[in-house]
Amino acid sequence: MNETTIEHDVTEKDNGVHTAKPANFAKVEAPEGPSGKADTELLGDDRNLDTILGIPVDIQVVLGSATMLVSNLLKLGRGAVIPLNHRVGEPIDIVVNGRVIARGEVVVVEDDNSRFGVSLTEIISSQTGALEA
């Protein structure tokens, strides 16, 4: 691999203001592999992608939220119902790392009637923030 040296010139004008000239950069090449050729396969290796794809993330399913005064919170007891901002039948939010990535409907898991699941109805595009139905 070639070494890159960055040189720049600074000149001083009469009024004390410094002006920099543009820097010139040397061409940077991919590192050579064992075969003596540029090893471009290592730069976009699938192993790097597999490593990232293996990272676990926590998914939160948000049924809704509520705001209440501390005095009302302290009055809550067993059997109290806290009304949420989502209504029955409205899609719920699926959140990953604090970002809503999709919306869906609560369902009962077919294999285990004692568990809930989410059926995705909308995917939120990461680039535009728009919904994909």
How would you describe what is shown here?
It contains two helices and seven strands; from the N terminus they run ββαβαββββ. It has 133 residues and is mainly beta. The longest helix has 8 residues, at 46-53. The chain is elongated, with a radius of gyration of 29 Å.
Record the SSE blueprint:
Elements: E1 10-12, E2 18-20, H1 46-53, E3 59-62, H2 70-74, E4 92-96, E5 99-108, E6 116-124, E7 131-132
Based on the model shown, name its key terms.
Surface presentation of antigens (SPOA), mainly beta, single chain, 2 helices
Gist?
It is built from two helices and seven strands. By secondary structure, it is mainly beta.
* CA gyration radius, whole angstroms: 29 Å
Give the class from helix and strand content and strand pairing. mainly beta
Which runs of at least 5 residues are low in confidence (pLDDT < 50)? 1-10
**For the report, how would you describe the main beta sheet?**
5 strands, antiparallel
CATH topology heading of the largest domain: Surface presentation of antigens (SPOA)
Please tell me the total number of domains.
2
Which CATH class of the largest domain applies here? Mainly Beta
**Strand fraction:** 25-35%
SS field, number of helical segments: 2
Strand neighbour order, sheet with most strands: 3-4-5-6-7
What is the H/E order? EEHEHEEEE
Mean pLDDT: 76
Net shape? elongated
